[in-house]
């Protein structure tokens, strides 16, 4: 099961925050195929948001083929997000942790790290598109 | 899109003063509609007209099915226990779901034997909403349901109202002058200003259809429709509707709900009103 958290000051539309959190959980393996997502009622009872927002997020996930609504039963995960396997995930994470330690030792703070990572990520995306 | 409530050419007058003029709007079923505007805009008058507490001088307002109303000064008797309020409600209403009310109160942890005066403000609001819901309305009309509540109680009241909307076909119309309370909960926006309707529409569509622009004060606004603008030194910031202007010096972003509402309230002559489909047509 996944528990949604809302960042009210983020400027990101609420339904998108829910979509991102499900995808993140799929990537990390905390949500797996066959798992049930909380019902709209359960989500609104904890977050005090409009139920249509939850339904919109679930529709978006359904459109992307990640979940499926089963009438009268709820919404279930259909497939995980293809990408690195769990073992590769662990290996890459170790590498990133080592890099963060090295950068910290070089005097970079949290914000410097984030900026550097974002720039490299953006450059890689540009190269990929070229 | 079946309307749960529809007003056409609604006008309400107290003695010789018009408090609502030429008000035509429609709220689709299943929506949570926010009714916002400054004090004296006509919010309470519109709600009173919707639930039949007053007769309009002009036009008409119709609700599909039954409406329940919770006034701002919560209509509870201090010396009654919660259980006595339930008995009172049962006698005053033709439709009454006592089981649903009792289980709702149990779920909220509100003891039936407690006197109303011994409840917190948040609990009193919850009891008032529970009584309104027990009459099984199709439209729940709430006048400033969160006024005078602390942030935790506001959150709790909103959570329980949203759960009702998720649980069955219920349309909600609620007024507030604190727009941030409505940002996550309302998917329909109605703005009243000085007795006139300025905005009525789907919240997401409204936000998608507007931009906040900032730029130098000599930048051209050609190609866009300005709702309102404010100037600080050489910089202008404004709310516009539709496409961005052609001048590339403007920086544009999507407005927040509060910016959208404020943009319209600052400029009472602007309006964004949809074409009405018509309930009786």
TrEMBL record, chain A:
Limits of the HTH gntR-type domain: 12-80
Annotated transmembrane regions: none
Gene Ontology terms for molecular function: DNA binding; DNA-binding transcription factor activity
Record bears the keyword Cytoplasm: no
Swiss-Prot/TrEMBL keywords: DNA-binding, Transcription, Transcription regulation
Source organism, top-level taxon: Bacteria
Keyword Lipid metabolism recorded: no
UniProt protein name: GntR family transcriptional regulator
Lineage, opening ranks: Bacteria, Bacillati, Actinomycetota, Actinomycetes, Streptosporangiales
From TrEMBL, chain B:
Pfam families assigned to the protein according to its UniProt record, in alphabetical order: ABC_tran (PF00005)
Annotated ABC transporter domain residues: 5-219
Listed name of the protein: ATP-binding cassette domain-containing protein
Bilayer-spanning residue ranges: none
Alphabetic keyword roster: ATP-binding, Nucleotide-binding, Transport
Stored InterPro entries: AAA+_ATPase, ABC_transporter-like_ATP-bd, ABC_Transporter_VariousFunc, P-loop_NTPase
MF (Gene Ontology): ATP binding; ATP hydrolysis activity
Species this protein is from: Microbispora catharanthi
């Amino acid at each position: 099961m996944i528990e949604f958290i809302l960042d009210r000051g983020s400027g990101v539309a609420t339904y998108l925050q829910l979509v991102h959190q499900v995808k993140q959980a799929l990537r990390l393996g905390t949500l797996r195929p066959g798992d049930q997502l909380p019902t709209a009622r359960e989500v609104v009872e904890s977050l005090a948001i409009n139920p249509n927002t939850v339904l919109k997020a679930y529709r978006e996930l359904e459109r992307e083929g990640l979940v499926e609504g089963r009438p009268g039963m709820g919404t279930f995960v259909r497939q995980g997000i293809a990408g690195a396997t769990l073992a590769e995930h662990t290996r890459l994470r170790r590498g990133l942790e080592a890099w963060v330690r090295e950068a910290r030792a070089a005097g970079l703070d949290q914000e410097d790290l984030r900026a550097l990572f974002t720039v490299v990520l953006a450059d890689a995306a540009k190269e990929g598109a070229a | 899109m079946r309307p749960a409530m529809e007003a056409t050419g609604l006008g309400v007058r107290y003695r010789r003063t018009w408090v609502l003029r030429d008000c035509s709007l429609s709220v689709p079923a299943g929506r949570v509609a926010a009714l916002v505007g400054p004090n004296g805009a006509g919010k309470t008058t519109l709600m009173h007209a919707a639930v039949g507490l007053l007769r309009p001088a002009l036009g008409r307002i119709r609700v599909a099915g039954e409406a329940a109303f919770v006034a701002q000064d919560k209509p509870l008797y201090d010396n009654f226990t919660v259980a006595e309020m339930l008995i009172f409600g049962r006698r005053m209403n033709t439709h009454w779901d006592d089981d649903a009310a009792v289980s709702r109160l149990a779920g909220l942890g509100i003891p039936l034997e407690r006197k109303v005066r011994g409840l917190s403000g948040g609990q009193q609001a919850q009891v008032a909403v529970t009584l309104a819901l027990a009459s099984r309305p199709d439209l729940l009309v709430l006048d400033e349901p969160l006024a005078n509540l602390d942030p935790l109680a506001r959150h709790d009241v909103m959570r329980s109202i949203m759960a009702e909307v998720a649980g069955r076909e219920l349309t909600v119309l609620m007024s507030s002058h604190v727009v941030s309370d409505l940002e996550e909960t309302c998917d329909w926006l109605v703005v009243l200003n000085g007795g006139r309707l300025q905005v009525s529409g789907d919240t997401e569509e409204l936000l998608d259809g507007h931009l906040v622009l900032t730029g130098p004060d000599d930048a051209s606004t050609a190609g866009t429709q300005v709702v309102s603008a404010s100037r600080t030194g050489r910089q202008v910031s404004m709310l516009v509707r539709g496409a961005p202007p052609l001048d590339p010096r403007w920086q544009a972003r999507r407005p927040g709900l509060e910016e959208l509402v404020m943009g319209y309230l600052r400029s009472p002559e602007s309006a964004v009103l949809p074409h009405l489909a018509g309930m009786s047509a």
